[in-house]
Amino acid sequence: AWERYPLENLGHPHPPVDESWKKSDSRIVILIAALRETRLPETILSAFDNAEFPERVYIGVVQQNAQGDTDAVEAVCEQRGKPIRLNSNGEFENPNNCVEYDRVRMLRMDASEAAGPVYARGRQPELLEDEDEFCMQIDAHT
Fold first, then answer.
1. CA distance linking residue 87 with residue 73, whole number of Å
2. What CA–CA distances, in Å, run from 129 to 78, 98, 133?
3. Helices 72-79 and 40-50 meet at what angle, rounded to 10?
4. What is the DSSP track for 53-106?
5. Whole-angstrom Cα distance, residue 94 to residue 101?
6. Number of other residues whose CB lies within 10 A of the CB of residue 62
Protein backbone atom coordinates (compact mmCIF):
# COMPACT_ATOMS: atom_id res chain seq x y z
CA ALA A 1 0.00 0.00 0.00
CA TRP A 2 1.10 3.54 -0.73
CA GLU A 3 1.89 5.79 2.18
CA ARG A 4 1.61 9.53 2.00
CA TYR A 5 4.80 11.30 3.05
CA PRO A 6 3.97 14.35 5.18
CA LEU A 7 4.75 17.58 3.34
CA GLU A 8 6.22 19.15 6.46
CA ASN A 9 8.97 16.50 6.33
CA LEU A 10 10.08 17.57 2.86
CA GLY A 11 11.83 20.70 4.06
CA HIS A 12 12.23 23.87 2.05
CA PRO A 13 14.54 24.95 -0.74
CA HIS A 14 17.65 26.81 0.28
CA PRO A 15 17.21 30.57 0.10
CA PRO A 16 19.05 32.43 -2.66
CA VAL A 17 22.64 33.34 -1.74
CA ASP A 18 22.23 36.82 -3.20
CA GLU A 19 19.81 39.06 -5.09
CA SER A 20 20.98 38.12 -8.61
CA TRP A 21 17.69 36.38 -9.33
CA LYS A 22 16.00 39.79 -9.28
CA LYS A 23 18.25 41.30 -11.96
CA SER A 24 16.76 41.88 -15.39
CA ASP A 25 19.99 41.00 -17.19
CA SER A 26 20.87 37.66 -15.59
CA ARG A 27 22.27 35.09 -18.00
CA ILE A 28 20.51 31.76 -18.22
CA VAL A 29 22.31 28.74 -19.67
CA ILE A 30 20.51 25.66 -20.91
CA LEU A 31 22.79 22.63 -20.93
CA ILE A 32 22.15 19.76 -23.34
CA ALA A 33 23.95 16.45 -23.88
CA ALA A 34 23.18 14.99 -27.31
CA LEU A 35 24.23 11.70 -28.89
CA ARG A 36 23.49 11.83 -32.63
CA GLU A 37 20.27 13.68 -31.84
CA THR A 38 18.42 14.78 -34.96
CA ARG A 39 15.86 16.88 -33.03
CA LEU A 40 18.46 19.05 -31.30
CA PRO A 41 18.19 22.01 -33.73
CA GLU A 42 14.44 22.24 -33.07
CA THR A 43 15.08 22.17 -29.32
CA ILE A 44 17.57 25.03 -29.62
CA LEU A 45 15.24 27.08 -31.81
CA SER A 46 12.35 26.45 -29.42
CA ALA A 47 14.40 27.64 -26.44
CA PHE A 48 15.17 30.95 -28.11
CA ASP A 49 11.76 31.40 -29.74
CA ASN A 50 9.85 30.77 -26.51
CA ALA A 51 12.05 32.85 -24.21
CA GLU A 52 10.57 36.10 -22.99
CA PHE A 53 14.09 37.57 -23.08
CA PRO A 54 16.04 35.52 -25.66
CA GLU A 55 19.03 37.85 -25.40
CA ARG A 56 19.61 36.47 -21.89
CA VAL A 57 19.59 32.82 -23.02
CA TYR A 58 22.70 30.82 -23.85
CA ILE A 59 22.84 27.15 -24.67
CA GLY A 60 25.69 24.75 -23.96
CA VAL A 61 25.72 21.56 -26.00
CA VAL A 62 27.89 18.47 -25.64
CA GLN A 63 27.31 17.17 -29.16
CA GLN A 64 28.40 13.63 -29.94
CA ASN A 65 28.01 13.17 -33.69
CA ALA A 66 29.24 10.67 -36.23
CA GLN A 67 30.83 11.76 -39.48
CA GLY A 68 28.07 12.89 -41.80
CA ASP A 69 25.68 13.92 -38.99
CA THR A 70 24.39 17.47 -39.16
CA ASP A 71 25.95 19.92 -36.72
CA ALA A 72 23.27 21.47 -34.51
CA VAL A 73 24.43 25.09 -34.84
CA GLU A 74 24.85 24.68 -38.57
CA ALA A 75 21.26 23.43 -38.83
CA VAL A 76 19.92 26.22 -36.59
CA CYS A 77 21.61 28.94 -38.62
CA GLU A 78 20.48 27.30 -41.87
CA GLN A 79 16.87 27.31 -40.62
CA ARG A 80 17.22 30.99 -39.68
CA GLY A 81 18.35 31.73 -43.24
CA LYS A 82 21.81 32.77 -42.01
CA PRO A 83 24.04 29.81 -42.94
CA ILE A 84 27.47 29.36 -41.40
CA ARG A 85 30.34 27.63 -43.17
CA LEU A 86 33.41 25.55 -42.46
CA ASN A 87 36.72 27.22 -43.21
CA SER A 88 39.88 25.47 -44.42
CA ASN A 89 40.89 24.78 -40.79
CA GLY A 90 37.69 22.83 -40.19
CA GLU A 91 36.24 25.56 -37.96
CA PHE A 92 32.91 27.27 -38.43
CA GLU A 93 32.67 30.90 -39.53
CA ASN A 94 29.64 33.15 -39.23
CA PRO A 95 29.64 35.35 -42.36
CA ASN A 96 25.87 35.94 -42.25
CA ASN A 97 25.68 37.05 -38.62
CA CYS A 98 23.58 34.17 -37.32
CA VAL A 99 22.64 35.34 -33.80
CA GLU A 100 22.43 31.81 -32.40
CA TYR A 101 25.99 31.08 -33.52
CA ASP A 102 27.30 33.28 -30.71
CA ARG A 103 24.71 32.10 -28.18
CA VAL A 104 25.25 28.35 -28.48
CA ARG A 105 28.43 27.03 -26.91
CA MET A 106 29.51 23.74 -28.39
CA LEU A 107 31.70 20.91 -27.19
CA ARG A 108 31.89 18.73 -30.27
CA MET A 109 32.88 15.10 -29.86
CA ASP A 110 32.90 12.16 -32.21
CA ALA A 111 30.16 9.67 -31.42
CA SER A 112 32.85 6.99 -31.01
CA GLU A 113 34.04 8.92 -27.93
CA ALA A 114 30.61 8.72 -26.31
CA ALA A 115 30.66 7.04 -22.92
CA GLY A 116 27.02 7.40 -21.94
CA PRO A 117 24.76 10.26 -20.89
CA VAL A 118 26.37 10.66 -17.47
CA TYR A 119 29.76 11.23 -19.09
CA ALA A 120 28.34 13.80 -21.53
CA ARG A 121 26.49 15.60 -18.75
CA GLY A 122 29.69 15.56 -16.71
CA ARG A 123 31.39 17.52 -19.49
CA GLN A 124 28.72 20.24 -19.52
CA PRO A 125 30.37 22.45 -16.86
CA GLU A 126 33.15 23.08 -19.40
CA LEU A 127 30.59 25.19 -21.27
CA LEU A 128 29.79 27.50 -18.35
CA GLU A 129 31.35 30.94 -17.91
CA ASP A 130 31.84 33.03 -14.77
CA GLU A 131 29.16 35.50 -15.91
CA ASP A 132 26.51 32.78 -16.09
CA GLU A 133 24.14 33.09 -13.16
CA PHE A 134 21.61 30.34 -13.74
CA CYS A 135 21.75 27.05 -15.56
CA MET A 136 19.46 24.14 -16.19
CA GLN A 137 19.76 20.85 -18.00
CA ILE A 138 17.28 19.48 -20.51
CA ASP A 139 17.05 16.59 -22.94
CA ALA A 140 18.15 17.18 -26.51
CA HIS A 141 14.69 16.41 -27.86
CA THR A 142 12.69 18.58 -25.43
1. 15
2. 27, 21, 9
3. 50
4. SGGGEEEEEEEEE-TTPPPHHHHHHHHTT---EE-TTS-EE-TT--GGGGTEEE
5. 7
6. 25
Distance of CA 136 to the CA centre of its chain: 9
Residue 81 dihedral angles phi and psi, to the nearest 5°: 80, 20
Which residue type is seen at 80?
R
Instruction: Show the CA angle centred on residue 19, arms to residues 59 and 61, nearest 5°.
Output: 10
* pLDDT, average across residues 20-28: 84
- Return all residues near 22 (Cβ < 8 A) that are at least 6 apart: none
Query: Shortest CA distance to 80 belongs to which of 103, 63, 62?
Result: 103
Write the single-letter amino acid at 118: V
* pLDDT score at 104: 98
Q: Check pLDDT > 90 for residue 19.
A: no
